[in-house]
Each structure stands twice: as C-alpha cells, then as structure tokens.
Amino acid sequence: MTTVQIGVQIQPQATTVAAMRECWKAADEMGADSIWIWDHFYPLFGDPDETHFEAWTLLSVMAADTTNAKLGTLVTGNGYRNPELVADMARTLDHVSNGRMYLAVGAGWFERDYTEYGYEFGTVGSRLRQLEADLPRMKHRLAKLNPGPLGPLPLMIGGSGRRVTLRLVAEHADAWNCFGPPDNVADLCEVLEDWCVDVGRDSSEIERTVSISADDPHAVQDYLDAGATHIIVGLHHPFDMHALQRRLDERDAIG
To answer: Can you tell me the mean pLDDT for 85-108?
Structure first.
C-alpha cells in the first residue's frame, strides 16, 4: 500500500507575518507532513497591491518555528537568485531545520516578479534553458559545501511542461510538483514515465507531489490512484485549518 503524505502551502499574500507563523505552527502540531511557501513578490490573485512577503526570509523563520514537517518553497523561481546561492541557502536552512528542507525550483512564470524587480523575463524557452543550465550548478555547489546538508535535501522541480520540464525531472529531480485535477496528474505521470525510460531513470525514485486548492472536490485517494503520493493543500488568509484537517483525516483513514 502506498503511504500518502499531506502538506500545506501557506500563501504569503493579504496577510501578516504573525498570522502565517500561527498557521505554520498549527500545521506542524496537527501532523502535516510538509509546509510550503510560494516564491513570488506580489499577490497572484485578488488585489494586486495587497500585502505580500518574500519566501526565503519567511522560510528561515518557519525552519526555526517548526520541528516535524518537511519544508520548502513551492517552488523557487530559478531566475530570481544565483543558483549557487540558492543551494547554499537551502543547505543552511537544512541545518536550521535539523534536516527537513527541500530544494525546490522551477523555471518561473509570473511576469510582474521579473519586470518590477529588474530581472529579464525572456521567454518560456529561455527560462527553461536557464533552468537546465542551473540545475547542475546547484547540485555541484551542494556537493562542495562544508558542511553539507544535514538531511537528504531532495531536489524538487515544479512544472508540467511535457517536452522540457518533465525531461529535467527525469534527469535531475528527487521530487516533482504539479497541479490537479487527478486526470491531469495521471496524464503527466505517464509522460514522466516515458521520459524516465528514455533517460534510464527508475521512476520510483521520484516523489510525486500535487498542489490542490482548499476546496478541491476530489478525494485524496483519487490523487493516489492518479499516481501522486504527496498532496499539498493551498491556504490563503484567513487560513482555514479545517481544510487541512480534512485531508489529514483522509490520510489517516487510508493508513
């Protein structure tokens, strides 16, 4: 029987640092398997000028505030920071968290992040080419750091691109994140399986996570049947912990 994990993504918009700290502490105490933050500089929905906070700074506080859940960004925008620096940041927080960090990255997509912070937005193709070039740099830096990561520090890649992103997952990733519904997950899992065959990778080595909304109508079992093993519930302020508890109850019922 496949063991399912349940995580939560705390969305850092239209809220306060105090409210987020209360939320991730509660999620940790409730038994969430993972806690995440998104890596953007502006709100992704609602009022575009609402309050918003930076991911890695929050993640450092989260690492110190929690004791059980695995932690990460879902996912870091690759173009926002030097890849060696990202590897070092993740390694350092892996020590702060006593070995509970993921290093999670994606090609990036939210144009406002780039234009208002002075990064080159480029094209989908150029961002994917940069991600492909930067993944080996991150892995190389992790191997050189002294001390190295305290825990396994899985490398996660987020995205659903069939021709490039899923190939990079097959080549480099310990974990992969996509989005529901279950039919989409099942379809993408088949594509990933094909890429793993092409590159000679054992697909069972790759953890498969899926991001869902708090009101997603599908059962955890539906996502398990589709090929995911780790379901991450997105929460925005005011943070409805009942939505997380419902999924934790489903996890516990599955066993």
So the answer is: 98
Q: List b or e across 114-153, with b for residues whose CB sees 16 or more CB atoms inside 10 angstroms.
A: beeeebeeeeeeebbebbbebbeebeebbeeeeeebbeeb
Look up residue 114 and give its two tokens: 């780039």
β-pairing verdict for 230-235 and 207-213: parallel
The residues, any chain, with a CB within 8 Å of residue 63's CB and separated by 6 or more, are: 71, 93, 96, 97, 100, 101
Please name each of the domains of the chain with its CATH number. Answer: 5-254 (3.20.20.30)
* Chain center to CA of 72: 6
In the predicted model, is pLDDT for residue 84 greater than 90?
Answer: yes
**CA 206 vs CA 154, 156, 166, 193: distances in Å:** 10, 9, 11, 10
> 142-163, pLDDT tens digit by residue?
999 999 999 999 999 999 999 9
Give the H/E segment covering residue 211: strand 207-213
Residues 44, 185: Cα–Cα separation, whole Å: 23
Report which DSSP code applies to 164. Answer: T
Phi, psi of 197 (to 5 degrees): -60, -45
Q: Distance between CA atoms of 179 and 158, rounded to whole angstroms? A: 9
Say how far apart CA 20 and CA 113 lie, in whole Å: 21
pLDDT band at 114 (very low <50, low <70, confident <90, very high): very high
- Shortest CA distance to 156 belongs to which of 103, 195, 118? 103
Cis peptide before 238 (omega within 30 of 0): yes
Whose structure tokens read 């496949």?
2
